[in-house]
Design brief:
The chain has 159 residues and is α+β, with helices and mostly antiparallel strands. 18% of the residues lie in helices and 38% in strands.
């Protein structure tokens, strides 16, 4: 693991604001768009790149698919999400991050290895056949500068 700060890009299914924190074991429901990556710093240029990208993307609906088990031990319950728009957004965000020297923790989870999903959480889960609408993307720090046991929303961008 890198000693540089780590982040993810997600789309929360409920409204969160910049600066909001939550326990690392209790995420709000979300779709991961870019898996964990390290970054030397969150530069104004990357911020503007993500802002431009989000402004060029409209919100979109996606259908909740079947259940699956993820994780190294195949013990993390998820629902798969099927959406060409989501796959395209993932590719655009990964490209933007790489232009700013992001280093992904596991390259097997990007590009052709990207499998959009929503992990079942303590607060609830989704069910096959539901439709969700992605309206925002959030950059989340995997260690909050204010609380090592929390995750923190660093930026939120509206689609």
């Amino acid at each position: 693991m890198s000693d540089k700060p780590e982040f993810v890009v997600v789309s929360f299914l409920e409204s969160l604001q910049e600066g909001d924190r939550f326990p690392k074991q209790d995420w709000p429901l979300h779709v991961t768009i870019a898996p964990p990556f390290s970054l030397g710093n969150f530069s104004p240029e990357l911020d503007q790149g993500l802002r431009n990208l989000s402004e060029s993307q409209t919100s979109f609906a996606a259908r909740v698919g079947s259940e699956a088990l993820f994780g190294p031990k195949q013990d993390v319950p998820v629902n798969l999400i099927s959406s060409d728009s989501l796959t395209e957004l993932h590719g655009r965000i990964v490209s933007e991050l790489e232009q700013h020297h992001a280093s992904f923790r596991n390259r097997n989870h990007v590009e052709t290895g990207y499998h959009p999903h929503v992990t079942h959480q303590q607060e609830g889960r989704l069910h096959e056949g539901q439709e969700i609408t992605l309206r925002t993307i959030e950059l989340v720090a995997l260690t909050s500068p204010r609380d090592e046991e929390a995750r923190e929303v660093i930026r939120s961008y509206h689609l």
